[in-house]
UniProtKB/TrEMBL annotation:
GO cellular component, one term: membrane
Organism ancestry: Eukaryota, Sar, Stramenopiles, Oomycota, Saprolegniomycetes
Entry's transmembrane regions: 238-258, 279-303, 315-332, 339-364, 395-417, 438-458, 478-503, 524-543, 555-573, 585-606, 612-631
Mode of membrane association: Multi-pass membrane protein
Originating species: Aphanomyces invadans
UniProt protein name: tRNA/rRNA methyltransferase SpoU type domain-containing protein
Length: 796
């Protein structure tokens, strides 16, 4: 069985074999020139010149009279002897076959199906005497061209060489639809199943996962309480109730979507499986800004709590130092430890409980503070640059928008769902909702009972430390400041880890540049991602001068934008992916109300501080621009080629000689761009087809053309062992291949069971990552398990 699989794979090479041309002992310049032109026409990648006179060869390359401004698209390499030429070929292509063109008893017809075997170097003999003894000695096999007319002694050397090169190009042409039959060896499938069981231990349980998410969410309490009080005044508790109600709806929205597609990526992954790649890429830009703002706000807030105990400490430099330290730690390989996160989470939760108890005692002893705060007027607001008197409506509207800051980090659980035990995600959201709702609401009420509103507003960055100092004393203030510094610093670490995972996912999906996947040899960490995050985060600290309120607004923009788009994607998910299995189904009313509330929160942030919108838009457009450049890089390259041809054409003489000295990437203009375009389009895409339905297959082809850069789509059908593939499958694929001439569409049938192990085996056999494999909406648990591997759902 294993030999059958290998034979099938050999019949259908994963990448088209390459063709070479050896020129040796050719006398006439015209023949050399015509050979080079034929080589350019039939896809030769390298011409190997052995012992040819330089002057004669250079003159043969001068084709300005025939094709002005033409540039040969292949490498030209010189050798002194045929032995050196063969050694070079074997080094470049170990399986290369040197095919001599000669009429011999052991030569095969150019029409024989097995005359070409993998990479081939074609070599013709002298115009009169044919192949020399030295040439015959290095050939692996021979080919002749049968004649069907009256016959002649031999064809012209250029004609014969061109016929052979054309025949090779025909069978290896990437535009020709090909079919492949694969048989999976049972031993390999069993080994993959064993590895899959070992690779997913699901070590993260309910409380370790809750701790990782909770450190993000509960750290928000340290800086959101004062900001909400400054916007909502005495109605801060009501604003937090509205937030708790909103996030209650989003609990079930998140559970429905993530349980159906339990993959890391959160909102990006949801949009990728329900809409186009461009919309998903835009969501990823918001997610990047959210991680960026998380780290910046946490670093600045940690500096504020540290400054409370170290007067005179510069917040901006301190925040920069925190970002620097954690950048170095991440480059050195320090990742977010679940155990450490659990310890920090437990200590922070106990600290907040202690603050709540102390504040309750203090409130009972000093009830006048609460009643005094109830008598204060609503805070005036700066709306679009105009001072407006506050009222209950403005307090609730802008207070609600600011209070959403207290639940930022809620989406963190969806970004590491693959590392969680089955059924854990629902419990995480339940725990986080209870904890965030309790502490945000309780602390907002107790804040009114402990501190006068003017004191809260003046110390909004460290309001919890002020409460600790007032209710217990100096030592508790010191404890809470240290706790706040540690928790917020831990949130910075989480941001580095989160952005690294997200950026690597985007790079694998070809949304971000692939150099972000590069790891250093020392610690095997993604240093480019870490350093890029550090530079951008530090710039944000300095541009906004460490202003927590403005930084928090940027954070809220990104978070609320993600909530809006997640609600939209959830509704699209209901419409387009209704048959996919899921743990629960959120009612339409929850999606609509959740969308409305998140839109209102976004609008409130926008109206409350328009200056921040400029900063947010600048960073969002920068990230989106980089992503758009990646998605449209083929268009950009083609435009560059047009511009270069227009404004800076290379001199003809240079064009004739540069290929002798340089590789195509070093040549001015076209060849370098053509090579880049081919490199971008080279990786193939797989679409799994359950039933041969031409309409579904056409939708898959259209999706690939609109969303991916590729010249090759492989449509795979898996049929049961002992059965037979559908008779119409190969014909349908061939029809699509004719309909879309710019895309090579191949058919692949696999005997076996459609399962995760099958997908992994195919990924290895075809050398295609699972995130570049697509599937129709799965309607059963077996297919659903496949989509959980990262296989993208693209059609309904």
């Amino acid at each position: 069985m294993e030999s059958e699989a290998l034979a099938a794979a050999a019949a259908f090479p994963l990448t088209p074999p390459q063709q070479y041309l050896i020129i040796n002992n050719i006398q006439k310049r015209k023949n050399i020139r015509d050979m080079l032109l034929s080589a350019a026409a039939f896809g030769v990648v390298e011409v190997l010149v052995v012992g040819q006179k330089l002057l004669s060869f250079d003159q043969a390359m001068n084709i300005e009279d025939v094709l002005p401004n033409f540039q040969f698209p292949f490498r030209i390499t010189r050798f002194a002897t045929l032995g050196e030429c063969r050694a070079h070929l074997v080094a470049v292509e170990p399986t290369v076959t040197i095919l001599g063109i000669e009429i011999l008893h052991n030569a095969k017809s150019v029409n024989d199906p097995d005359v070409f075997a993998g990479p081939t170097a074609v070599m013709a003999g002298n115009e009169g005497s044919g192949l020399s003894d030295a040439q015959l000695a290095i050939c692996d096999r021979f080919v002749y061209i049968p004649q069907y007319g009256g016959g002649t002694a031999s064809l012209n050397v250029t004609v014969a060489t061109s016929v052979v090169m054309h025949a090779f190009a025909l069978i290896s042409n990437p535009d020709v639809c090909r079919s492949q039959n694969l048989h999976m060896p049972a031993t390999e499938v069993a080994a993959i199943e064993t590895e899959l069981e070992k690779a997913c231990p699901h070590a993260l349980g309910e409380w370790t996962s809750t701790a990782i998410t909770g450190n993000d969410v509960l750290s928000s309490c340290l800086y959101s309480s004062g900001i909400v009080a400054s916007k909502a005044g005495k109605l801060a508790p009501v604003a937090n109730i509205l937030v708790a109600a909103t996030m209650y709806l989003f609990r079930f929205i998140y559970i429905e979507v993530v349980s159906a597609i339990p993959l890391n990526g959160g909102s990006y992954n949801t949009m990728l499986n329900t809409t186009s790649k461009r919309w998903a890429a835009f969501v990823s830009a918001l997610a990047i800004i959210a991680y960026l703002a998380t780290g910046v706000v946490s670093a600045v807030s940690a500096s504020d709590y540290l400054q409370k105990e170290v007067p005179g400490l510069d917040t901006i430099w301190s925040a920069t130092g925190i970002l620097t330290v954690f950048a170095i730690l991440n480059v050195c390989g320090l990742n977010d430890s679940a155990v450490v996160a659990l310890i920090i989470f437990a200590v922070h939760t106990l600290t907040l409980i202690g603050l709540v108890l102390a504040s309750v005692v203090y409130a009972v002893q000093h009830p006048h503070i609460f009643w005094s705060n109830m008598g204060t007027p609503f805070p005036s607001l700066d709306v679009e640059g105009h001072d407006l008197p506050g009222n209950a409506a403005t307090a609730l509207f802008f207070g609600f928008s600011s209070a959403m800051l207290g639940v930022t980090g809620f989406e963190t659980a969806a970004n590491f769902v693959e590392e969680q035990a089955p059924g854990t995600f629902r419990k995480i959201l339940r725990n986080i909702w209870y904890l965030s709702s309790f502490f945000n609401l309780t602390l907002s009420v107790l804040n009114l009972c402990v501190l006068p509103l003017h004191v809260t507003t003046a110390n909004s960055n460290v309001v919890l430390a002020m409460m600790a100092s007032t209710t217990v004393g100096r030592w508790f203030e010191l404890w809470l400041s240290i706790d706040g510094f540690i928790v917020l610093s831990g949130s910075v670490l989480t941001s580095y880890v989160g952005i690294t995972g997200l950026a690597k996912r985007l790079a694998k999906d070809r949304v971000l540049p692939e150099f972000f996947l590069v790891e250093n040899a020392w610690r095997h960490t993604s240093h480019y991602i870490i350093l890029a995050y550090f530079v951008v985060a530090t710039s944000l600290v300095w541009i906004l001068e460490g202003n927590v309120v403005m930084l928090s607004s940027v954070y809220s923009y990104a978070f609320l934008g993600l909530l809006v788009l997640f609600a939209v994607s959830a509704m699209l998910f209901k419409l387009k992916r209704s048959q996919m299995p899921r743990e629960t189904t959120a009612p339409w009313s929850a999606c609509i109300v959740g969308l409305f509330m998140s839109c209102m929160g976004f609008w409130g942030i926008l109206m409350g501080d328009p200056k921040v919108s400029v900063v947010f838009a600048t960073y969002l457009l920068t990230v989106s621009g980089l992503i758009l450049l990646m998605l449209e890089r083929l268009f950009v390259l083609r435009m560059i080629m047009v511009v270069l041809k227009t404004i800076s054409p290379s001199p003809a003489s240079d064009k004739m000689r540069l290929p002798l000295l340089q590789s195509p990437s070093e040549v001015l203009g076209g060849p370098a761009i053509v090579k880049a375009i081919k490199t971008i389009n080279e990786p193939p895409i797989v679409f799994f087809c359950k039933h041969p339905d031409l309409q579904v297959l056409n939708k898959a082809v259209l999706y690939v053309r609109r969303n991916e850069h590729t010249d090759n789509l492989r449509i795979v059908h898996v049929y049961s062992r002992g059965g037979a593939p559908p008779a119409a499958f190969h014909d349908m694929v061939a029809v699509l291949d004719c309909m879309y001439p710019k895309l090579r569409i191949d058919s692949v049938v696999v005997e076996g069971e459609f399962s995760p192990s099958t997908v992994h085996w195919l990924s290895h056999a075809l050398n295609i990552p699972t995130n570049m494999m697509f599937i129709r909406q799965p309607d059963n648990m077996d297919a659903h398990k496949v989509s959980m591997l990262g296989v993208r759902v693209i059609t309904g």
